[in-house]
Amino acid sequence: MLRRTPAPMRPVSAWIVLLATVTLGACGKGTPTGPALPPTQPTPPPAQPSFDFSGDLIAFETWRDGNREIYLMTPDGSDVIDLTNDSHADGDAAWSPDGSKIAFASTRDGNTEVYVMDVDGGNVTRITNNPAVDRFPSWSPDGSKLAFATDRDGNGEIYVMDADGSNPVRITDDAATDQEPIWSPDGTKIAFFSDRSGNGDVWVMDADGSNPTNLTANPAFDCSPAWSPDGSHLSFVTDRDGNDEVYTMEADGSNPINVTQHAADDFASTWKTDATRLVFDSYRDGNWEIYSIKLDGTGLVRLTTESADDEHPKWRP
After folding, report:
1. For a Cys staple, 187 with which of 79, 141, 296, 297, CB 3.0–4.6 Å?
2. b/e sequence 263-293, b meaning 16+ C-beta within 10 Å
3. Cα(140)–Cα(15) distance, integer angstroms
4. pTM, to two decimals
């Protein structure tokens, strides 16, 4: 996929390179700075501190162990734990509706597949098994199904499967790239990224793939949709102001609002469960770090302060 790539920033999907060399990839931040996979030596797992898995948590991806891992942290960033502890690339974290499991993509079995693990990182189960690239999982609100993106048909398409990986069904059929599916809170629709209009836009379709509608329809590049908890709004990333910013819009695409309003690139937002804040990653302090912000753009709080890149936060439902 063509994408503006401002150096020296890492791609929004730096794990495109790390998870596979494929045509299936998200909108980007720039040239990767992390190591290629597989690493020459596995990273020794860090000692796992006592951690409370029962509360309000944010999953995120980080390079702080030398390869891409999925971590959890408390909403103030004060307590963190490495969930995946694997020498391969792990990313695309997606919370189950009840917050007890996380679906994710990993290269640990030789190509990019979708896995599910418990909230404490246990019981890792591979649920796709295809030589193609499978990634970007998203749970249905009742937890019975997962949408995901795959290039098993030669280009990026969106499938839905049962939560155990059975009965995969293709729900998009377009020569363009369709990916980043996100199920609406009421289960009736799936928002997604597509370049079928000639550039990147945020689209929405019925959960069976019918009635695709371009929500952004802007000559800029728009991607990475995320539903508000009540389904009335979406956040998304756009470069319509000359750099990547996090916007919100109503569920029909109307009333787009720039929330982040900063000269540095801001990316990859999700919503707090009470819909009062967004969590996102930003390059504003010289590397990719995670922040939270109120919907009116005030109350900015930096949550991570590592020299390694911390990205793609996902608030527990």
Report:
1. 141
2. eebbbbbbbbeeeebbbbbbbbeebbbbbbb
3. 24
4. 0.88
Whole-angstrom distance, CA of residue 224 vs CA of residue 235: 8
Considering the domain boundaries, does residue 202 fall inside one? yes
* Residue 192, domain CATH: 2.120.10.30
Residue 9 lies in a domain: no
Q: What is the DSSP string of 179-206?
A: EEEEE-TTSSEEEEEE-TTSS-EEEEEE
- Asked if 97 contacts 74 with a C-beta cutoff of 8 angstroms, the reply is no
3 domain residue, yes or no: no
How many alpha carbons lie under 13 Å from residue 52 in its C-beta half-sphere? Answer: 8
Question: How big is the CA angle at 315 (ends 314 and 317), to the nearest 5 degrees?
Answer: 120
Q: What domain range includes position 192?
A: 15-36+57-315
78-104 pLDDT tens trace: 999 999 999 999 999 999 999 999 999
Q: What residue type is assigned to position 85 of the chain? A: N
DSSP for 251-281 reads: TTS-S-EESS--SS-EEEEEE-TTSSEEEEE
Residue 250 lies inside a defined structural domain of this protein: yes
